[in-house]
């Protein structure tokens, strides 16, 4: 049986997912696409042999759609995810699950009423081979009990529309999820330290930023977010435990010696860096849809990430330590 | 349209290909499998929903088989490939294309009579992201005109059946193809230098070996083959040019510091090391089958590799320099 | 002319300096040693052919002592340094210059009255080839204007006598000086973040700690101090600028592949890690003594480091951000 | 007691040694220098406070010279070394010990008549911290019994006077000695393989070259010599044993990320690369002179290296395998 997927949103990430499902995922195909920009939807549909749905709602309800992939603008996520849950269809939602904590709670409530998980959130790093190997090593006790985590999230440059808040909501949110997942622990406070900003940014932006998190278990995490670092896309993650430390590997690139320098090239974008992670994420999601099960980052994970990101945005404004209280994890997400 | 693939040979590599086509290649499925060991064939068929063909010949001729994947015992390759060409069906043949130079010539002759390429040889390293990036860099002139190549091919341990000749035919044959491809040059001589052998080998085996090749263009290549190196699976390839050198990257593994040591784990097998390469190879082959085109390593490449490996085996015996003359490349393979 | 050096303090670091001057520094010799533990002093003196002085004061005043090296217990530093300045003799004082800010000011006042620099503080990292190359690269604009610094200072294990305060005063003080020197900037505030402590420590100790500093120019610095990290001695320093980043190199150790692991051994102590730095420090100091000049970390540097360390200790207690005001730098130290 | 050293030859390497002894070696000073170029001798003498000797012979015989350092033109080495042995004075001779095997034998005969070792040959790599750590690891059995060695010796560019023979005599001679020392084994044959030469060389020169050596114990060694590699000075040495492999470390240089590239700078010359080795070599030699003992590479090592280099030059001409028979090692050099 081939899983028929409907995609809402045919922007850059939506088109990447469509291409990926079409080319590298067995047992799945795109059956319908929806976008407010009809021309974009038609173009995307033509490339993968899908139909254009009249709207996200129509797509979610349609008989030729077994599962929904939400890749539209963030503020519309909650509406589509809630509709998919109401239709009892599995949904993979790009991060964020929702832009407000209240909407995240609404989604969890809907799943709980239904009594089963349908929502997976697009935290693709959990599928990156490097992160997965780090996770295994930490669980195997290779570094002992974790105590500290040092992270960096660097982009070559940010567009004009990128705001100081997005450093938390769009960039660090990946580190927030990765830390929660690697440590199997919840974040309980956030602080933001602002160094002088680089001159190579749009004037409205505080860049770089250092975000500090504490977990319920007492682990301390620092995250450098630097979205105009100029030299490339660079994701670092080091976990320090009682017996040692483990670092996320840099991508495998050839070693070159020429012109008095030895080294490698640096990836320039997340698409290149996390290509294998996206492949694995979509394959795992389609498999779980076909099997009628749920796996991967849940609505709870999407909620916790949104809650921590919101506290981080408040910490940007106040300069102080902002507590985060995610509450008790519902049994459905145990 | 889904490409229906028939697989001949359900040993380890055959089963890996079946699993891969089934799970990670879109637009293709396994429709039939054949194996002299009927029980093995039935087991493999059951796992992917294919039928068991009565024989390789039946499979090749069947209407439900669009393309053939040959993963049987080396000495049977030529027969199956010739049958596939006779049936005008695309065929992906695991290396070697054939165990004798004469059989390789026969296959090329068949393709030439037909007037088009149907055969792809399973030199999967050409699809490894690291090798591909090295190739691009060499072509872009990043290291200037190549002069030397230093390679190593190490396995943790070899089974009892592994012979001194197989170090050339089964192991170094990958380096032989990779060198021809990276340098876009033909090998014209082979020499083998035998150090004392490791004590950790079966007594009949010369291990390690150093193979020396020269290309028509004057590039010199040295290849260490060491199939009982104990520490893991390790493939090294360094090309030295007039302006610099480039090295194949080691796999991206997390960096660990613990117990007074810093470093990474080492892959233990080729399946792990070249997993992404096999994915890309099969995807590219299925795409070219669907498109009715041919790409990747050709029968000519399979022939040249077999010819060089044969000279290397002779060099193992004589200790001297053995010339290789592959002759003029037919227009079909230009 | 050979510089005759008197050494006060013949503990571990004192004996190392004596050995170093005797064996690897030309143009200098140890003429006298002093220690409250007379037996230790006699043993050290015998090994290098020096006499035992009756006291630090006697040594400083003696005609056979051209310059003084203070390697005694920290709280005695100020007294010996002040005596050396009073005697107008050059003095190399192990860190800290003094344990209180007031004593550091007293020493600066004495030098200023004299109108010339006599004091060098033992911040040997400024002589480490790696740190020096980082300094040159930063000054050459290789990474653009610095914005952030990420540091780690890890020891295998700490003795019972090591206290939470010493993480700032004895360990991070090296990072404090290195950051001031690399950035040519003063630290204006300190904060300490305490993760859960490792179980592998003495119960009185908070370990690890994360210290956060801000400079007058707005650079933010984070320093992990972890003195029971178990795996070895490990010093990391990464400076992030507007154009790129630069990392202190790890020591050059052979790369080993064996038993499924690839990597290097890790140094186990600071003596091994900074051996070349100590050589260069002592050689530079003896040269400047011979030349009648002053170079290297000054009393001002010793004062600033002590002031920042004191603020860090206060920050350990309060949990908040503690300002540091070092005031105007006197002309003598411009 | 200060060792008084006379230096014959004040070219680049001679001046480096003079500077080194003067500045970084305790317990030794330069008392006399000799050079056919009197002006050069006077200039060198003035810088270190030594006198100018009338000739090498006068210097060797003089009362103010305890030990002799020969850094003159290679063909004059034998004469000076023989004179020093005749005068029963310790002598450190830059490589080669002598340019002919016959002269090397003459020197060994003179030492044997005297009944004690006076000669040390300037194979400074034995004092390089990286090589020493490799040696220790090999001796400790970390890689098991050695089987293979892969080496590279690359220079940015060679002067006009550099000849094809010098690739063996002046460049690979370092690898020849290092291999004999690391393996504690003698080389018994040499072969040279010539790839096409780089276009960036003087027309008379074959560059690069690959030299192949075999030891009495059956270890095979390949050495790439490439003296116009353009990108820098690069020395590689990898030893493969029954249990694993060990690689000489690259120098510790800061890691830089900027302009889409990650990596380090490459040393540009041997002086920079082996600076610590030269320091340690001269310190060890002066210590052994002071102690009246002998250590380090002996006349036997100098002889063996010259014999292997001579065979390598013959192999360059013939293209074949040239045997080397160093004979029985005299008891003096056991």
Automatic annotation (TrEMBL), chains A, B, C, D:
<dbReference type="InterPro" id="IPR036291">
    <property type="entry name" value="NAD(P)-bd_dom_sf"/>
</dbReference>
<dbReference type="Pfam" id="PF22725">
    <property type="entry name" value="GFO_IDH_MocA_C3"/>
</dbReference>
<feature type="domain" description="Gfo/Idh/MocA-like oxidoreductase N-terminal">
    <location>
        <begin position="3"/>
        <end position="123"/>
    </location>
</feature>
<comment type="function">
    <text>Involved in the oxidation of myo-inositol (MI) to 2-keto-myo-inositol (2KMI or 2-inosose).</text>
</comment>
<keyword id="KW-0520">NAD</keyword>
<dbReference type="InterPro" id="IPR050424">
    <property type="entry name" value="Gfo-Idh-MocA_inositol_DH"/>
</dbReference>
<feature type="domain" description="GFO/IDH/MocA-like oxidoreductase">
    <location>
        <begin position="131"/>
        <end position="246"/>
    </location>
</feature>
<keyword id="KW-0560">Oxidoreductase</keyword>
<dbReference type="InterPro" id="IPR055170">
    <property type="entry name" value="GFO_IDH_MocA-like_dom"/>
</dbReference>
<dbReference type="InterPro" id="IPR000683">
    <property type="entry name" value="Gfo/Idh/MocA-like_OxRdtase_N"/>
</dbReference>
<dbReference type="InterPro" id="IPR023794">
    <property type="entry name" value="MI/DCI_dehydrogenase"/>
</dbReference>
<protein>
    <recommendedName>
        <fullName>Inositol 2-dehydrogenase</fullName>
        <ecNumber>1.1.1.18</ecNumber>
    </recommendedName>
</protein>
<dbReference type="Pfam" id="PF01408">
    <property type="entry name" value="GFO_IDH_MocA"/>
</dbReference>
<comment type="similarity">
    <text>Belongs to the Gfo/Idh/MocA family.</text>
</comment>
<comment type="subunit">
    <text>Homotetramer.</text>
</comment>
């Amino acid at each position: 049986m081939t899983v028929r997927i409907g995609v809402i949103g045919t922007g850059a990430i939506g088109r990447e997912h469509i291409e990926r499902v079409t080319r590298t995922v067995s047992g799945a195909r795109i059956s319908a696409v929806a976008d407010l920009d009809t021309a974009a939807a038609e173009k995307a549909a033509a490339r993968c042999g899908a139909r254009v749905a009249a709207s996200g709602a129509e797509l979610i309800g349609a008989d030729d759609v077994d599962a929904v992939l939400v890749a539209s603008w963030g503020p519309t996520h909650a509406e589509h995810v809630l509709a998919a849950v109401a239709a009892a269809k599995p949904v993979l939602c790009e991060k964020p699950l929702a832009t407000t904590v209240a909407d995240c709670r609404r989604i969890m409530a809907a799943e709980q009423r239904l009594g089963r998980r349908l929502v997976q959130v697009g935290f693709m790093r959990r599928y990156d081979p490097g992160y997965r190997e780090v996770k295994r090593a930490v669980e195997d006790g290779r570094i002992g009990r974790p105590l500290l985590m040092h992270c960096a999230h660097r982009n070559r440059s940010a567009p004009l529309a990128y705001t100081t808040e997005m450093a938390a909501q769009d960039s660090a949110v990946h580190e927030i999820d990765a830390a929660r997942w690697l440590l199997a622990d919840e974040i309980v406070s956030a602080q933001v330290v602002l160094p002088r900003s680089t001159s190579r940014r749009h004037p409205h932006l505080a860049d770089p930023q250092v975000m500090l998190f504490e977990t319920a278990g007492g682990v301390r995490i620092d995250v450098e977010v630097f979205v105009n670092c100029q030299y490339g896309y660079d994701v670092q993650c080091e976990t320090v435990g009682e017996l040692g430390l483990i670092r996320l590997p840099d991508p495998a690139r050839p070693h070159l010696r020429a012109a008095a320098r030895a080294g490698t090239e640096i990836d320039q974008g997340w698409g290149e860096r996390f290509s294998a992670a996206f492949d694995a994420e979509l394959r795992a999601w389609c498999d779980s849809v076909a099997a009628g099960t749920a796996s991967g980052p849940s609505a709870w994970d999407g909620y916790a990430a949104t809650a921590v990101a919101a506290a981080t945005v408040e910490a940007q404004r106040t300069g102080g330590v902002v507590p985060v209280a995610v509450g008790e994890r519902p049994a459905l997400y145990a």
